[in-house]
Amino acid sequence: MNKTWISIIVAAFFEVCWVIGLKHADNGLEWIGTIVSIIISFYLMIMAGRDLDVGTVYAVFVGLGTAGTVLSDIVLFGAPFNIEKIALIGLLLSGVISLKMVSHQKEKVEC
Predict the structure, then answer these.
(1) Which has the closest alpha carbon to 53: 109, 107, 111?
(2) Phi, psi angles (nearest 5°) of residue 106
(3) 107 touches 53 (CB < 8 A)
(4) Is the dihedral of CA 77, 79, 82, 85 positive or negative?
(5) CA 30, CA 32: separation in Å to the nearest integer?
(6) Residue in 29, 13, 3, 6 with CA at minimum distance from that of residue 64
(7) What is the pLDDT of residue 30?
(8) 105 by DSSP, 3-state: which?
(9) Gap between the Cα atoms of 16 and 23, Å rounded
(10) What is the pLDDT along the chain (111 residues), one digit of tens a residue?
(11) What is the DSSP string of 15-63?
(12) Is 68 within 8 Å of 13 (Cβ atoms)?
């Protein structure tokens, strides 16, 4: 796995952080953390779009972020565990993995 894919995974992690922050931030420090997470996640996603197809980057970013948000909601905040929901997250993640397997990095063109 190269650094571009790692940056997408890190961006998705920060997406989960800011989504949680939007719901649970109660003070200024938590809001600052939420804003910093937004900036980091979108910066990393934009940078990854320079090396990979933007559609693939966005699909993987959103898929991992969605799965992470649902799982963190269950683990951290006591949302009800639903086997159908977990099965659908598994299906989503299999699509994300499949996208990674069929995508290729763009060749950089220097001007």
Answers:
(1) 107
(2) -75, 150
(3) no
(4) negative
(5) 5
(6) 13
(7) 94
(8) coil
(9) 11
(10) 589 989 999 999 999 999 999 999 999 999 999 999 999 999 999 999 999 888 888 888 988 998 899 889 999 998 898 899 889 888 988 888 887 778 765 555 455
(11) HHHHHHHHHH--SHHHHHHHHHHHHHHHHHHHHHTTTS-HHHHHHHHHH
(12) yes
Domain boundaries of the chain, sorted by first residue: 3-102
CA distance 41 to 19: 11
Q: Which amino acid makes up residue 56?
A: T
Q: Both tokens of residue 46?
A: 């934009």
| 99 residue type, one letter | L
Report which secondary-structure segment, H or E, holds 74: helix 54-77
pTM to 2 decimals? 0.79
Q: What integer pLDDT is reported at residue 47 of this predicted model?
A: 94
Q: Within a 10 A sphere around the Cβ of 30, how many other Cβ atoms?
A: 13
* Residue type at 21 in one-letter notation: G
> Strand, helix or coil at 93?
helix
